[in-house]
Specification:
alpha+beta; 5 strands; about 45% helix; flat
């Protein structure tokens, strides 16, 4: 698994029950939904604990698992070049991913539409049409064009048009859809904000060197 604290991959060895004693499955409580217990592991890289709350049926069959520590699914920190108006929705989408992929996907779709409208120059429409406009413009590298096209396909916008017409709506999502949206946003952030800033810094540094030697700057 990938550690939600430090993002390192490791082979998880889980134990259930009392975290202090590291012994047997300790029942926390029983209610009409089933038996509540928990499962934990420790990342060997950062040595921090990851804890999941479990709900099991009367015969021990697992019904639901929820990550309770750390809260949210960790992802790489956004570079400072990403403006806060986009970064805020992205961070919140990451934070709620573990509890509600539907809410996470809604935030990501809204953020995606915001980025495409502001940076890709699309005509305002629904998200599906805006994605098509970007694809038709061929303004994105192939890997990013394929990523945003997959947003429509994974989300099955044809069968669920509300996803493209009302991007902030909480609707059902396909397995992996919320994570794919976050991956796609990261790629777009890098393309629209990070790489241009990196190239500008390099160009400014080169122009400073050229200036010191009496040569004209790059255009």
């Amino acid at each position: 698994m990938k550690c939600p604290h430090c993002l390192e991959n490791f082979h998880a060895h889980f134990f259930e029950g009392d975290v202090q004693a590291h012994t047997g499955a300790k029942i926390v409580s029983i209610d009409p939904y089933g038996i509540w217990t928990y499962r934990a592991t420790q990342c060997p890289a950062c040595e921090r604990i990851i804890v999941f709350l479990l709900i099991k049926g009367p015969h021990g069959d697992e019904i639901k698992e929820m990550q309770v520590w750390p809260k949210g699914i960790a992802r790489a920190l956004l570079p400072p070049e990403v403006p806060e108006e986009y970064a805020a929705d992205y961070r919140e989408a990451c934070l709620v991913l573990g509890d509600s992929p539907k809410a996470s996907a809604a935030l990501s779709r809204r953020c995606l539409q915001h980025v495409l409208r502001d940076k890709a120059g699309v005509r305002t429409s629904d998200l599906a049409d805006e994605i098509q406009q970007v694809l038709d413009s061929k303004s994105l590298p192939t890997y990013l064009a394929e990523a945003i096209d997959a947003v429509r396909n994974i989300g099955n916008f044809a069968a669920h048009p509300i996803k493209s017409k009302s991007t902030g709506e909480i609707v059902e999502v396909q397995p992996g859809e919320a994570e794919w949206l976050l991956d796609t946003l990261e790629g777009l952030f890098d393309f629209y904000f990070v790489q241009p800033a990196v190239l500008k810094r390099k160009r400014d540094a080169l122009n400073e060197k050229l200036s010191k030697t009496g040569k004209p700057p790059m255009k």
